[in-house]
């Protein structure tokens, strides 16, 4: 019971982890242990816990090797800490999860693909892959090119953003289904075979530049509406309430905003009929930029910053500083803000403070979920 209390205290805390006492390796082991256990569950119940779009492209053997490596690393780190009496309470939980994952079959769980299509599901596999990949890549980048060098990985309010990350990824199936239905219901009439044929006939590079431009034009005006229409700002204020910028900050987004924005951005992509290869490449770009532009990294790209959105550009959008309010709306092409007169003009290279001016959005996932409906501002 005491160990559970200590684990709960750790989950509720923030700040730099103590080095040399097994805290860093213990947290790594526990995180990998949790992901391994969830991965085993996804292997056992793929019809309910995996995303249909991802199932088609999986290399199951490669995933098994990744899971085996994660179990070995997590178990090894935990065992070393236990043997050397370093954070035994933390490492014991990690080792227990690895053992439980192994007892349940580990990386050898047989996967039976013969289940009915259309089964309701939650995207546990997408959550695992995205969290593992994003954490490994972007934390590494943040350590190499940190803007605020004293900001720890577990900064204040990281728990809230992780909860947003989990929920928004777990219900990816619902979001995709709802978005698809809304796009076809309200925008299907606009599809034109001639226009679609022209778009699909474009070279790959031209189609990719065009799809990013089309998506960003829609995103720009949608984003601007979130700031200028009070009813929409109630939703968007949740995203702006983050006070520390890093790879996890972009996950703080109200589910209704996520649904509205994805529907509006995907509508012209559907209407114009871009090829699957172009859409897949766009998904990679938007996925990378959505995380990277919130990262705690000092990247400006010289003159290219007037063309492409960088972390520096987007950090200004999240600032409370007077010259940054309601500016820098673009997600991909920075020149759109310069074109429409909404680019930040400042003599300073970086903003000072992040968050909503007045700091009236509460912390905590559930409080933020209901905030748009209870705020009396």
Give the strand tally. Answer: 0
Overall 3D form = globular
C-alpha Rg (nearest Å)? 22 Å
Tally of individual helices: 17
Runs in which pLDDT lies below 50 for 5 or more consecutive residues are none
Q: How many independent structural domains?
A: 2
Alpha-beta classification = mainly alpha
Tell me the span between the first and last alpha carbons. Answer: 43 Å
Order of helices and strands: HHHHHHHHHHHHHHHHH
- Binned strand content: under 5%
Mean pLDDT value? 89
Main traits of this protein?
single chain, 377 residues, mainly alpha, 2 domains, 17 helices, 62% helix, 0% strand
Describe this structure as you would to a colleague.
With 377 residues, the protein is mainly α. The protein has 2 domains: 2-121, no CATH class; 172-374, no CATH class. It is built from 17 helices and no strands. The longest helix is centred in the middle third of the chain and has 25 residues, at 204-228.
Summarize the structure.
The protein is an all-alpha fold.
Please render the helix and strand layout as text.
Layout: H1 2-12, H2 23-44, H3 46-49, H4 52-55, H5 60-83, H6 88-103, H7 124-144, H8 158-170, H9 172-187, H10 193-200, H11 204-228, H12 230-240, H13 255-272, H14 276-292, H15 311-317, H16 335-340, H17 365-374
